[in-house]
Structures are given as C-alpha cells and as structure tokens.
Amino acid sequence: MACAAAKPTNQSQVSQVKLFITSFSDEFYSERDLIRKEILPVLRLWCDSRKLTLVENFIKWGGRHPDQRNVAELERLQTSIENSYFSSIMPIFINITR
C-alpha cells in the first residue's frame, strides 16, 4: 500500500490512501454492499493504526440505461483520479466484473 499513500508535507499531516471500487451500475449490488459493510471498516482500522486516511470511492460505470448516468459524478471521480497522480498518489482500484 505504500505506493497508494500520499506523503505528508509535514509530520502533523496524515498520509492518504485512495481506493476506487469499480463495477457496472446495474450489477453487483451485494458485492458492493459486502465491501462497504464488511471489508472497508476493517481496512479503515488497519489504515488508522498506521496513521493513514482511507478515502474510498465507488464508481458505477455504464449500465443498461445510459440516460440514468450521473455524468457530473463521473467527472468528479475522474478529476479525483487525475489529481491523485498529480499529487504523487498511486490510486488503488478494485474492479468487480464477470
């Protein structure tokens, strides 16, 4: 996880880990729910014990109904990913597919 953590600019700052969980918007409801309820709390505690801040983002791509896409949300997430690279943070991706 070291590559996904932002280096603090001073010693009082906490490093940041950016996690992006991606899947199709119309599928994988139970899998996203399991990650949100079971895995992320444990991962957050692990990060806290190492003075890391976990920032998680769920990205729901595509889907069968393109008119229901939240374009503004997708643009915000894309900007967040791009800013990670500019801040020397290598984001971590978990992609749920068939």
Automatic annotation (TrEMBL):
<protein>
    <submittedName>
        <fullName>Uncharacterized protein</fullName>
    </submittedName>
</protein>
